[in-house]
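Below sits the subject:

***
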Amino acid sequence: MKNIRSKLKGTGVAIVSPFKKSGALDFLAYEKVMNHIIEGGCEFIVVLGTTGESPTVSKEEKKELIKFSVEKNKGRVPLVVGIGGNSTSEVIAALHETSFKGVDAILSVCPYYNKPQQEGIFRHFKAVSEESPVPLIVYTVPGRTASNISASTTIRLANECENIIGIKEASGSIDQISQVLKNRPHNFLVLSGDDALTLSLLALGADGVISVVANVFPSEFSELVRAGLKGDFVKAREIHFRLLDFMNSLFADGSPAGVKAALEIKKLAGNFLRLPLVPVNATTYKLIQQLIKL
């Protein structure tokens, strides 16, 4: 457990799930993006996160992607798999149906839509963590889920659930994240879930990021994070400002539409999404095209 915590510090990448024009998974493009990320020096990869369009990937496709990721990764970096939902029993069933050979941890999003109380959120993650054969990182992203894992609930999970090793924090609240960083157990990971806030969170003592931008610029973003972790904020700030406009452009028409446009421009993957998501508009695409020449 201690070993995996140390391996999940730094830059993790929420890898896209590339599709062909037909809508089928594009495994060739997926392998290209994976190699681009690993060769760029990132510390770990998150498969089937939000950026991987997990809501529109079928159960069979998820199994195929996990298997393919393990085979092509060849143990080069740790792999984290997104397994979450708004029904505790269904999340546990998904755990039981998943092969964890070659998988190091799971990322599990806060239950969405049904808007549980904090006690319900605690019990949900406690139940999932007890059934998971690998360590669990919880994920709060209220802008997408309409529910939030409060700082006090995060600390309670960290102290009472041995198999929960960290949180991806995308609440956007510096105050909430500061409370987590202030009160967490010493070995509990706090990972930024917002590329643009990563530098600020590193200054507060966060352990790294699960990034969208690093699909496109893995070397630059992982260099920013490593500099921040070392306390070299002059260097980290310089990279942050260099990437800032590009980071913002990726989210102008929603994610992962922006990053898929960027990957097409970089000739790594096609610019295809599954409904209800659609590609960025022409103005945003042109902006990304201009900024990608950083």
